[in-house]
Design brief:
By secondary structure, the chain is mainly β. The chain has one domain: RNA polymerase II/Efflux pump adaptor protein, barrel-sandwich hybrid domain (OB fold (Dihydrolipoamide Acetyltransferase, E2P)), CATH 2.40.50.100. The protein has one helix and four strands. Strand 1 and strand 2 form a beta hairpin. The relative contact order is 0.30. Pfam families: TOBE.
Length: about 70
Amino acid sequence: MRISARNRLKGTIVEVTKGATTAHVRIDVGGSLVTASITNDAVDELGLVAGGEAYAVVKASDVMVAVDD
């Protein structure tokens, strides 16, 4: 698979927590944890399990930056 997004971070899945319809997937990217909220169906289709490798793909228009005053 190829993807046009440049903000892709490869890491290891540390936890998959399914809810009623949405799952939280935690990925360790070089010691930092990234959490994604995706559907349970997507978890199943992608075969996401703790210990597996995955990419966190960040849509740049949804990233905000802040600093302290």
